[in-house]
C-alpha cells in the first residue's frame, strides 16, 4: 500500500520547513573525525543547543565552543509539559514543548530509509547533544506525518522514521541509547492543524524529556 502522505513531491518540503529546523545548514564532512573540531565553530550546532538547553542554562553568545565557552544566560520561558507514552517503551515520559527543534532530514518514499545527505544535519544534532550543557538530558525523537493516508500506517511509518534517526545518532553520533526515546505521533501532533494534509506536517523533531 502506497502511503498517500508520500505522494506529494518531496521537493516542496525544504521550502516550507521552519528556519528553526537546524538552520538549513548542509556540509559534506566526515561523520566522526570532524566532531571535536566542529564543536568549536559550528553555528548550526549552537543554534540547536540553544533550542534544546534547559531554561536555567542556555548557552551565551560569547567564547568558543558550541556552548559559548561555558557562559550561561537564563531563558525566561515557562515550560509547556505534555505526557507521552512512547511506543514500545515501558513508561510514560513528560516532554517540554518549549525545548524542541526540527530535524531537516528526508527519507525514501514510503520508507524509513534516510536519504543520502542526512548525515550532515544529524552530525550537527549529535554535536549539540554531546555538549556539556545537554549531557545529562534525555530527548524524545518524534516522528510526525500529515493527516493524508491511513492513520495506522502513518503512525507506524512515523515510528520507524523516528527510530531511524535515533539509531543513526547512537551508531554514528556516539550518543548513549539511554538518552534517546523514539516515538511516532503519526498525524496526532500537526504543525499546521488548519492544513492537516500539508507536507509541512511531515517532520522529525527532537524534544526534551523532563520527567
UniProtKB/TrEMBL annotation:
Keywords: Cell outer membrane, Membrane, Signal
Main localisation: membrane
Name used for this protein in its record: Outer membrane protein OmpA
Gene source species: Bosea lupini
Annotated CDD domains: OmpA_C-like
Compartment annotation: Cell outer membrane
Gene Ontology, cellular component aspect: cell outer membrane
Keyword Transit peptide attributed: no
Entry-linked InterPro entries: Bact_OuterMem_StrucFunc (IPR050330), OMP_bac (IPR006664), OmpA-like (IPR006665), OmpA-like_sf (IPR036737)
The keyword Cell membrane belongs to this UniProt entry's keyword annotation: no
Signal peptide per UniProt: 1-39
OmpA-like domain mapped to chain residues: 94-211
A Pfam family that the UniProt record links to this protein: OmpA
Amino acid at each position: 500500500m502506497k502511503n498517500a502522505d508520500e505522494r506529494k513531491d518531496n521537493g516542496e518540503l525544504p521550502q516550507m520547513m521552519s528556519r528553526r529546523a537546524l538552520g538549513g545548514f548542509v556540509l559534506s564532512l566526515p561523520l566522526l573525525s570532524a566532531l571535536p573540531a566542529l564543536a568549536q565553530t559550528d553555528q548550526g550546532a549552537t543554534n540547536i543547543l540553544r533550542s534544546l538547553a534547559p531554561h536555567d542554562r542556555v548557552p551565551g553568545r560569547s567564547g568558543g565552543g558550541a556552548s559559548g565557552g561555558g557562559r550561561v544566560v537564563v531563558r525566561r520561558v515557562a515550560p509547556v509539559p505534555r505526557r507521552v507514552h512512547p511506543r514500545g517503551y515501558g513508561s510514560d515520559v513528560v516532554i517540554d514543548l518549549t525545548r524542541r527543534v526540527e530535524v531537516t532530514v528526508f527519507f525514501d518514499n514510503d520508507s524509513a530509509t534516510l536519504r543520502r545527505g542526512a548525515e550532515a544535519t544529524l552530525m550537527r544534532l549529535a554535536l549539540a547533544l554531546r555538549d556539556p550543557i545537554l549531557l545529562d538530558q534525555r530527548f524524545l525523537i518524534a516522528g510526525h506525518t500529515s493527516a493524508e493516508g491511513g492513520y495506522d500506517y502513518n503512525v507506524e511509518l512515523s515510528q520507524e522514521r523516528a527510530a531511524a534517526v535515533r539509531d543513526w545518532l547512537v551508531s554514528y553520533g556516539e550518543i548513549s541509547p539511554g538518552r534517546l526515546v523514539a516515538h511516532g505521533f503519526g498525524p496526532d501532533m500537526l504543525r499546521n492543524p488548519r492544513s492537516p494534509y500539508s507536507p509541512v506536517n511531515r517532520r522529525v523533531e527532537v524534544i526534551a524529556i523532563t520527567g
